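Next comes this protein.

***
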Amino acid sequence: MPRPANLYLLTYNSLQALGWAVSLSRILSCFIYTGSFSGVYASAGDLICLLQTVSFLEVIHGAIGLVPSGVLLTLMQWGGRTHFLLAIVRRIVEVQELPSVFITFIAWSISEVIRYSHYALQCTGSCPHWITYLRYTAFILLYPVGVAPGEMWLMYQALPFIKKKSIGYYYFVWVRMHYGLNSNLGLIKPVSR
């Protein structure tokens, strides 16, 4: 990879790793000082929204060939997480204090610190084996924890508030949640007619 592109990716991934580490620190500090899940969104939510929004650059990185990842899968992952974060968690104040926000943010923060650190160190050519090991094994625990008791549970808890605000959006979220359970966890299978 040409030096300017490698330097850019090193900078981008290092800043993302740092941002997610700060988010993780804020989440844990809030939890330790208050002894509860309340205040987690207030302490780290805006930073997490920023980091997640900026990660759209990864779709562009794939589109212009800066990284070997595909565009469609990256866009779908970014869109799903960003929708969950900006359209549900950020807009529905009533769900921001729920334990599922804490679970989701912890799982995301840990996984992103590992992932972006791995990418940044790969750019330097000196990535320790333990980081590579964590990169490809930590998701075995973090993904189901982040999805089931985190994202999906929060979406379920948000449905009554969404229904009050907009009936059309309620059905959109219900379908997305149902589809997410089908594809992500394999818990519910659609009924064939």
